[in-house]
Write a structure and sequence with these properties.
444 residues; alpha/beta; Rossmann fold; 4 domains; six-stranded mixed beta sheet; four-stranded parallel beta sheet; 16 helices; elongated
Amino acid sequence: MRAVVFAPILDARAGRSRRESSLSPSAGAADRTPQARLEEAVGLAAAIDLDIRASGIVPVPQPKPATLFGSGKVEELAGLVRMEDADLVIVDHPLTPVQQRNLETAWQAKVLDRTGLILEIFGERARTREGRLQVELAHLVYQKSRLVRSWTHLERQRGGFGFLGGPGETQIETDRRLLSERITKIQNELEHVRQTRTLHRKSRQRVPYPAVALVGYTNAGKSTLFNTLTGAEVLAQDILFATLDPTIRALQLPNGSKSVLSDTVGFISDLPTTLVAAFRATLEEVQEADLILHVRDISDGASASQRADVNAVLADLGINADEEPDRVLEVWNKADLLDPDALEHARNEAARHGAILVSAVSGEGLEALLAEIETRLNRRRQTLQIEVQPQEGALSNWIYENCEVISRADLGEGVVSLRIRVAPEKRDKLARVAGASRLQAAVE
């Protein structure tokens, strides 16, 4: 499909109210340069294989309620759309239903705003049943908000009988009712999925390995890093939103410790609230993680703004990155794309900010990253030594199910000495099951 992309740049004072009332406000989006915003919009369009015929930055001194752009600008852009024979116009800004309808009329082409475009990408990328349900829910919530006299057929009266709609019910009321019914059905199905995911998470928690979650701006290299660290084969491409469905794999740490690592959906500036809500079950993996790795594309000039965007979404999930430095570790990825001077500067800055500079492609910094992950995870988990008698099978079984057994030594006559690592929340239970006097701090 032939498309053109417009990135409206609102006057700072005019745009402030819109940003403050945005579906997902972020400080980072406001700091990004107009050119960077345009490049990201073009990247989003390219993510669903659109044929981008033209793109441009469009200053908007004063947003118009009917069309966003002024009448003269609408006519000027209409000429460009006709010249490029475009079927689709992407406006990298939220549009009201009225603005979308009026622009489609003026340009004689389908119009998608930023939210609609992201929804299209998510719809194409989702693979699992849960992912498809989440995307469909977000689509329906978005469509329901569009049912405000957007199309002339919605004003028609229709008759009806039984449950198909009472006499005189308008088409818009029928459409809204059908959407509401479908939304309710999907929400019920997702609640079942959420309960199942909770059971799976509790099952993993019984296996005493801490959880690590990868988060970051879309296309920061999370999936490539995930594959490199775990040996998995998750789709990793240089496109936005290559990963939607979460994947969890075991992660072996340098000194024998183990953890589970999850790869999650990428974040983006002005991520629609409908998507944040729809993917909340998936994002619970982040909320429950013992350690969060915030992967940043340090080669991207907008990396600082992207950091603010990711932290804003984390804050929506109840995670304050600045107040929980031990739980959130920044991983500065794509070091292989930096020239020597920039690489040296990045190394110094990473050291100053407590970040780890890596390249998921070349392997640089990965040993240091794994060591830091292990250090941070073990910081919360106490290492103990306990001797277990041969008749204490129940105790031995409990330890293996709830603690990480680092080493085992046979002392003779069936007695074994276990060196274990225990999470803080299970320390008291272990003391009750085994007897506090038997637990000895292990010598590291």
